[in-house]
Amino acid sequence: MTTHRRKFPEQIVRLLGQADQLLANGEDFASASRTLGISESSFHR
Length: 45
Known about the structure:
By secondary structure, the protein is an all-alpha fold. It has one domain. Helices cover about 65% and strands about 0% of the residues. It has three helices and no strands. Helix 1 (about 10-25) runs antiparallel to helix 2. The longest helix has 16 residues, at about 10-25. It is globular. The mean pLDDT is about 85.
């Protein structure tokens, strides 16, 4: 069984930048979240 590890602030900033790029390219919110491997609720935090 693996333990859940929190992401470091640098990783969060990188993921948010990638999410902005995906959304700007017309990808919908749910598929952008899946692509980045995060849940939609985590993205809203």
